[in-house]
Amino acid sequence: MTIPKYVNHQGKVAVIVTNAPRTGWYTEHKIKQAVFDPDIVNSILMDDDSGVIEQIAIKKYGRENYTAANCLKVEWLAVNLDFTITRLWDQEIILVKKDYEWLRTDT
Questions:
Q1: Residue 57 phi/psi, 5° resolution?
Q2: Roughly what angle, to the nearest 10 degrees, separates helices 38-45 and 50-61?
Q3: Looking at residue 107, what is its pLDDT?
Q4: Which DSSP string do the residues of 50-86 spell out, in sequence order?
Q5: For the segment 49-97, what is each residue's pLDDT rounded down to a tens digit?
Q6: Is the dihedral of CA 5, 7, 11, 14 positive or negative?
Q7: 18 and 72 in contact (C-beta within 8 Å)?
Q8: In the predicted model, what is the mean pLDDT of the chain?
Q9: Contact yes or no for 57/40 (Cβ under 8 A)
Q10: Phi-psi category of 90—alpha, beta or left, where left has phi over 0 and alpha has psi -120 to 50?
Q11: Cβ atoms of residues 8 and 42 within 8 Å
């Protein structure tokens, strides 16, 4: 299944994360589609109220913890980039695979 994404005129993909400590978007609900959701991205870019963003998320993905809707930001990443979203020092961050040495469990 292909996840719909918001792509800007420079060909970069919008990724939604929080910009405040002690709160998480993906790290709270683990819904991949909500990380890329074009409607939520548009609401963030239009500076909509967090209640609007929460209602979009509830309608599309059901009742989860969307309290981070009041502190979301959009990060722009290249297409076909391997990354993950995690928490570090109580802050949600994006880790790009190419920027790190990954270990394997080969035998």
A1: -65, -45
A2: 180
A3: 66
A4: HHHHHHHHHHHH-S---GGGGGEEEEEE-TT--EEEE
A5: 999 999 999 999 998 888 889 999 999 999 999 999 999 888 899 999 9
A6: negative
A7: yes
A8: 91
A9: yes
A10: left
A11: no
β-pairing, 83-88 vs 72-77, is unpaired
- Are 66 and 57 contacting, i.e. CB atoms less than 8 angstroms apart? yes
User: What's the DSSP call for residue 24?
Assistant: -
Rounded Cα–Cα distance for residues 52 and 45 (Å): 13
CB 16 within 8 A of CB 37: yes
Instruction: Please state, in angstroms and rounded to a whole number, the distance separating the CA atoms of residues 31 and 93.
Output: 16
Measured CA to CA, the distance from residue 75 to residue 61 in angstroms comes to 21
Tokens representing 17 are: 């994360």
